[in-house]
Amino acid sequence: MATGVVCHPKSSVDQGDAVVRPATLVGTVDRRLASCPFAPVNRLTDCQQLYTRPKLEGLMKRERVSQVVLVLVGFLYLAWTYPLVESLWQSSWLQKHQDAFPMFVSVNAVLGVFLLLAVKQPARHRSLIAFGAWSTLAHAFTMTIMSSEAWAHGMHRKDSPQDVVIIGGIGLLLLAVLPAKEPEPARTERPHSARTSVQPNPAGA
Fold first, then answer.
1. Strand partners, 19
2. Residue 48: what pLDDT?
């Protein structure tokens, strides 16, 4: 007597029961599952690769753009080291009455160093890039108010308005390449252990 699985073909009901070996049946099911676009398989299917490939390419392009912008802005801010040294050399800031200039330039120079350090992994330095963007925009906003006040008093502020446009553009550029927030890992709550209450046996039980 042959062992196997009895199947009824759909094409003809009048035919006798067909005996199919288990190995043949498993092979047929595996082929059908592999051809199905929504087959629940353990490995990554071709359909999943097609869905995730454009997203990964977009993330990689965005990261490269962020790295290029960070390099340019980082070196630009680092270049403030030269006017800083020139201002502090032989106390030239006293002669020009530029008390705040060396302090302001030193902050930008240090920010440039850290922006260059963030080039390798921009997503892990999101807070630093956000600080660089918003501090630069705050600087441009402050210069805008100063230029408006000078114009209202019939005066012209030096390097205005080109410095406002340049600094504001740098801030908007850093804000545009700001990496997205990484999704927080899902928290798994441990099931509370069932507490069993031990009741004393009644007397005489």
1. 6
2. 52
